Every structure is written in C-alpha cells, then in structure tokens.
Amino acid sequence: MAEPLFYLDRSDILDGRLADVRDGMRELAGFVRAREPRLIAYHFFVDDTESTMSVLAVHPDSASLDLHLRVGGPRFRAFGALVRMRSMDVYGSPDPAVVDALREKAAYLGGATLTLHAWQAGFSRLLPPIGSDT
Fold first, then answer.
1. What is the pTM of this model?
2. Which of 51, 74, 90, 107 is the most exposed place for a label (fewest CB within 10 A)?
C-alpha cells in the first residue's frame, strides 16, 4: 500500500505583498482543486503577524505529489515575487525524482532548506473538510 506524504512549507511574505499573497493563495487553491482530484488536503495559512505564509498538503502517495509539482509548477513560480521560502518539510518517503523536483522548487522560491522525515509510527483518520472556500 502506498504511503501518504505530508508536506509543509513556510515562507516570509515580502513587504507590501500580503494582499497579493492572499489573492494568489485563493487562485492557486482553486486551480489545484480543479486539477488534482487525488490530493487529500491543500491549505494555505498566514500567521498572526501576517508575515509568514504556510502551505500544508496531504498526498495519498508520491505520484500525487509528483503530479502536483508538474501541474502547479508554473503557478508556484509566480509566488517568487511575493515570498521567500525558508523551509520545506516532507513527512514520508517521496520518490527520488520528486525529491529533486522539491529541491528545485525550494531553490527558485528563495533557497529554502528541504528536510525529509521518515515515518516511524502512528495512524491517520480522514477529517471533515476545513472551510468551503478555496
């Protein structure tokens, strides 16, 4: 059985770009929702100081994350003018080609560090969807 992957990144929002980031988040979430039916969860967050954007995604397997990177890649690049990614964490074991694509994404969005975390123990349960807006 394929192993799910949990993805989390954090980016500093560039000065004066918060409104653009929020617009971009909504647009990207809608784009991904329409094109990636296997993606389990895809959420954007802004911290209470409105200086950090976080992206949280849950993929059923490495193939889903690979598709996400290929489909969304051109749109992710647009965020390069809005944020500087500082960290990218993947929980689970993505395929080596996916790891390479993640490193490329981290580089063009500001040089973030990619950290891979190997599963040790635990379980998952599906939760009701968060919010109805994308």
1. 0.91
2. 74
